[in-house]
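Exam revision sheet. Question 4 asks you to relate a sequence to its structure. Input first:
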Amino acid sequence: MKQNLVFDAPRRGMPPRHFADLDDDGRAAAVAELGMPAFRAKQLANQYFGRLIADPELMTDLPAAVRAQTAEALFPDLLSIVRAVECDAGETRKTLWRAHDGANFESVLMRYTDRNTVCISSQAGCGMACPFCATGQGGLMRNLSTAEILEQVRAAAAELRDRDGEGIARDGRLSNIVFMGMGEPLANYNRVVAAVRRIVAPSPNGFGISARSVTVSTVGLAPAIRKLADERLNVTLALSLHAPDDELRDTLVPVNNRWKVSEALDAARYYADVTGRRVSVEYALIRDVNDQPWRADLLGKRLHGALGPLVHVNLIPLNPTPGSEWDASPKPVEREFVRRVRERGVSCTVRDTRGREIAAACGQLAAEG
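Answer key, structure tokens:
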């Protein structure tokens, strides 16, 4: 397997520095560079993370004389909306974003009765080359900056706040973040970890979302999984497994040629042991490819042996991409797969699928437009 499947060099430049890229010390230094008193750093953080404002012209506690200077230095326009589509009576909204260099990526906001979740991207495209994934078919353009990641979160939180409260959890507040959009989060490790730190940090230094409500997915970059465990952020780890055997996974998830199923599961066990958090195993069920009864048995056996009670299988009915040869498994096959995994003593449920009519599988909207 080519090395660039895992850590492909970005082909375009990163965006200009943004306030959200900076940690506490960086914010203090940036404010000092502008000749403003130190307390402005906390003031700007409260505006961005607390009030969800990214335009200094709207920051009423900032002197009018310094707003333009602050905007130019710390709040460049990073993203614009190319297209936004809704379904599920407006409860699912997918946004296609365009960055300063023309790179496109997506986020999906999903409202439920008990939670509000945004699925965000960590890269423009993806270099993992999984053949059943729309993003993987398009290849990797570049990593996203920390601020580009956080802007997806801020935009979702602001949208929820500004909508009417009908049917929205927690009075219209964003409750869950999942790094399951475009890209492999752990291939953009430093920026993703920085974004997670801002997401979970209490106001005014972050969005104040519980680490337990943040999920970081990976196709199985074993060393990075162990490194993430040692960060002690205690977010939920989601391992996209998709096959219990190396022979099939080498094809479905090409990074398996570098880190085999056993290595990915060993790293997941290390994560569970260090954090005390149960690992979620993602398994896209594909008709006549990975849905055989014997694979369900093997999946249950391997997970029970590697992780015991510290694992939950999240079966995902495949959301087919246009022109793809891949299709979702029939419901009877799905039910039998669940039964067999559970029979091995492993928790297993089927994920609620949203947004099929708006091409909500990651990468589909970008591929269309």
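Marking note for examiners. The two ends are 30 Å apart (CA to CA).
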